[in-house]
């Protein structure tokens, strides 16, 4: 040990490196207002001196680092050694390739978010989807007579077979057939929404949940016009699907179908909402009841046999429709009952066991889909045209007339035929419904705006005659005449043609190539007015039609098979 001139003590002779690092000699000097404490750390060939400057209260004022014995030669030698070490390490280490770091792709991040959204919808909705297996008995006899020799009422076809051969034709035990569909839970106490055609004529209905549990179900109610059915299983605390307001569904948004196509349970497919308010869709099974209450959501999400009754959901996981129909396999054209209609029907099926519809007893067309009539009612942009009033319908007892344009129902605007049906469907039977009506007067400029009161009746399939946005063929006749002959109504003619009329002109002949025939006017129809001019004399009729502009179109009001209706007779464009 030795002491230097700066009163610093250096310790030497350490063999343990750890103790060497921890060693040090503290000294102090009194300078001015404070004391300088020094700690010397000894290292091989190099040590440092840390100076802590404290005041009288031993508070640290500053710290300095000194290399009191570091000469320029020593520093140069150390730097040289350091450079050699770095070079050696560089040579001994394998050369690294230049790796370019990819830049973040915001589009890829968006794709991941969208992917996650679909995954979440599938995980959230699937527990509320059920697989429905239906067992039915075949009741058809295996023994059939040839065509034209069918059995009469009460006759057993085996009676025509000699007794000694009858044992070979005894009916075998009834075979059972099974079918499968889908459904969606709408109440936690076991109510399930599905299609009528899934559970129709079922002897046994089995429902399987996502967790594997199975239950026997009973039918609570079916509605053929909408193809909606509700079944019930005996359990509680079920996961429930959320039903969307389908009126807010927009064409182009995502649509996700979940169900059991081809017995492949909980299959998820997605596409888009292709269209809304699709109607006049023919059921694939000719023997199925006609779905007269149609307002389908069209989708290109893959829907196949077995998807029927399952949900069509949006990206928020809300049910926008119940998958019902497909237009062939793998065509990308499927149809779903909108959730608003399904909910309305299901609520009544749960409480009453049936759904009672109100109806007006009219045939209608969207004003937008009737360009031939627009020029006869100027100033009107939207509404629903009454094309026919059924003689046995509620509207026949009101002031509503063929040709009237209904613009609102109880103050709610209607634009399409389906909107008018939707507005009337849930009304109370026999309760007044106020219709806002635009009616053509004696001339195109004479437009009347009226309030017409109608008391809806109960919907019956056999009486329904409702058109919805249908497309009629254009008239391409260039004859310039109506192509018919008429006579004044008399008692004898009325009896002959079996019509209930006391005035007007009875159509006695129709030219098959004329305007009248092309628009469905037939022998026996009674014309009551032409372009709002009442007619009852054949001579007056002939004078009237001389000045008709068939290029513009002629409005003919008539009674056909007891129904008041009107037709527009118009020549097509050359």
Helical stretch tally: 10
Query: Which percent band covers the strand fraction?
Result: 25-35%
The best one-word shape is: elongated
CATH classification class of the largest domain: Mainly Beta
Give the averaged pLDDT, no decimals: 76
Please name the CATH topology of the largest domain.
Thrombin, subunit H
Radius of gyration, CA atoms, in whole angstroms? 45 Å
Distance between the termini: 125 Å
Organism: Pedosphaera parvula (strain Ellin514)
InterPro entries: PDZ, PDZ_6, PDZ_sf, Peptidase_S1_PA, Peptidase_S1C
Domain PDZ: 349-425, 477-531
GO biological process, one term: protein quality control for misfolded or incompletely synthesized proteins
SSE layout and pairing:
Blueprint: E1 2-3, E2 9-10, H1 17-22, E3 25-31, E4 34-43, E5 46-54, E6 60-66, H2 72-92, H3 106-125, E7 129-137, E8 176-185, E9 191-195, H4 196-199, E10 204-208, E11 214-223, E12 228-233, E13 242-243, E14 254-259, E15 267-278, E16 296-299, E17 311-313, E18 318-326, E19 334-338, H5 339-352, E20 358-359, E21 362-366, H6 371-374, E22 384-389, E23 405-409, E24 412-413, H7 417-425, E25 433-440, E26 447-454, E27 457-458, E28 484-488, H8 491-496, E29 505-510, H9 515-518, E30 526-530, E31 533-534, H10 538-546, E32 554-560, E33 563-569
Parallel strand pairs: 13-18
Antiparallel strand pairs: 1-2, 3-4, 4-5, 5-6, 7-8, 7-10, 8-9, 9-12, 10-11, 11-12, 14-15, 14-17, 15-16, 16-19, 17-18, 18-19, 20-27, 21-22, 22-23, 22-33, 23-24, 23-25, 25-26, 28-29, 29-30, 30-31, 30-32, 32-33
